[in-house]
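Hi R.,

Here's the chain you asked about this morning:
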Amino acid sequence: MRLTRFPLSVFALAGLAAAQAPPPGKQQRDLKLEKIEAPKPPANAPAHSYAVIVGITAYPNLPAKLQLHFPDRDAQSIYTALISPEGGNFKAENVKVLTGPKATLAAIRREIGVWLPSVAKGDDRVVIYFAGHGFIFEGKAYLAPYDFDMAKTESTGYPMDELGTTIGGKIQAKWKVLLTDACHSGAISPEDTQSLNHGLSTLDQSLFSLTASRDRESSLEAAELEGGHGVFTYYVVKGLEGEADTNHDGIVTADELAEYVHTQVREATNALQNPTSDRGSYDKEMWLSYIPANANPATAPPPQSGSLAITVNMDGVEVFVDGKSVGIVAKGKPFLLPGLAPGQHTVKGVHQGFEPDGPREETVYPGTESTVNIKILIARRRGKPAEEALDKGLAFYQKGYDQNYKKAVEQFEKALQLDSTYSQAAYYLGLTYNALGDEEKAQQHYKKAVEIDPDYLEAHAAYAGMLLDIGDVDEALRQINTVLVLQPNHATALTMRAQAYRFKELYPQSIEAAHKAIGLAPKSAEPHLWLGDSLRLSGKLADAGSEYDQYLKLSDFDSHLAGQLNYYVLGSLFGMGHRKHAAQEDIWKDLRSLAYFGICDCQYLSKQYDSAIVACQKSLTYFRQDPYTHFDLGLAYMHKASDIPADLDPALQHFRQVVALNPDLDLAKIARQNIATIEKALEGQ
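And the predicted structure, written out as tokens:
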């Protein structure tokens, strides 16, 4: 596949009527080879789904004793659950996440009070989630934004009655979901009228409100819940992932989620916290997540639950229960897993480079907490033949090109046959098959590497890169998010996040991720490329040009070297163009071409036509078959033709190239109009 590049160019030419290009983001080169299809939701699914997620851990205007620990993590967990195809089924671009300094009062009002009403229609679904502080002031309830000041509660807090008015009157959607995990968040529920603004109690049946606690109760956090979460949010996520599907029909309804969360939170906190919901007003057909793999009507609802308390002997042990990862456990901190069905469960602890402990069976008893001690003791040793096969495979892999990749595959497969627990062999098989364009086998081996060593971040990241390559950007974002939850400063994952958001046309998020990646890896070229692209497509042309220049400077090496380097080492260029190009050199050329195209488009929009022509011609030296570059060249020459009529000839040739290369593009239609205009002008001459 080729890289996307679409111009911002909008033009009008005196003397020569040039047809106008489509607006930014509407015309782009197709990224997708074959989109991985998500499970189809039930027949009554909403037309579209939109969400605003807010999580605030640190409050600059509150004392140390009032700082929280986990709302940022909670927000990311909710985000992952909502965008999962076996979950909320939200599109990533339809979910706004406000955490930390982004979650100001102005930003919350903008996204909830302006953006949601502008996009949501009558057949849609809307979810609003808040994790942070909530306060009662003079009998009135407020949520606390990042810039909340207790001395100015009325002017810096987000009034719940304003939220109620927005949900009930401004947002048009058939289903509206409000999830609040905040101290005193129960004040927003119609069950507690003493501190409630009565506007919420009059909302129509479309609202499902589930809040963390009753009025006058606190919303609790627990460090032992999978590395730390608000208790309420932890069980909301578990419920959305399928735990709340008590009748096993594959659908988590609002009633099921409310019952599950209330029961689990109450049990986990010894009745100190009691989530609340309005059980009588919302649409009974409302469902919140869809997990078709869960559908099994013959299975009876689970009986009373029990708990496991897991301890480990070293930091960074990932724990699996019944084959599913439940979190990373630290030494000396018991890891509580409540809400488990009574009976036998398999438990396994893994740590990269060591033999796993388990899987082994542990019994869960109703109403009982059982302790499980996991000990990681034996360093994994490789047999010499397996290590030699891996080394030989690496030698071939690092040479690049199709013939070397095929030889590398033979050696990596040999290493894995000699040692079925050799995660590095599986990982490099994934990389190599991806380089050969066999995404099915690549995916198989990436999953194998992660299965052997679940904390193998490079394998998670490489899998995400392959998903970007085949156009499954939503699933790639989920994989990237998994890496960043485990390691927030993973520069490669941040670079891929910038790339993914750029493809989704979420330019502010792309810019933010690219800046973080550059701060962590200043010598890496690729974040500058995605930053430049997102700046250009946001209209910030001067800044974009600087970033393209920086990318070209950092990636300026002998082109033959590009064919010998592993692009995973260079940055986050997993698979870019692999289906058409087995040689890494061609990937490098693709990106150089894209950078020069970006400079060309910036120069064209700045009316620097000579400079634009030079940059576009340079782009074509790396990739001659790009209709977008030919299109911009045609425009630049066409503009110059008002002063130099001879420039009509090259303009004509480049527009003809656009049509010849891809006659189905919308830009090809515009090119045909410009060809007719130029031919008429030439006849007049």
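The chain has a mean pLDDT of 80.

Let me know if you need anything else.
M.
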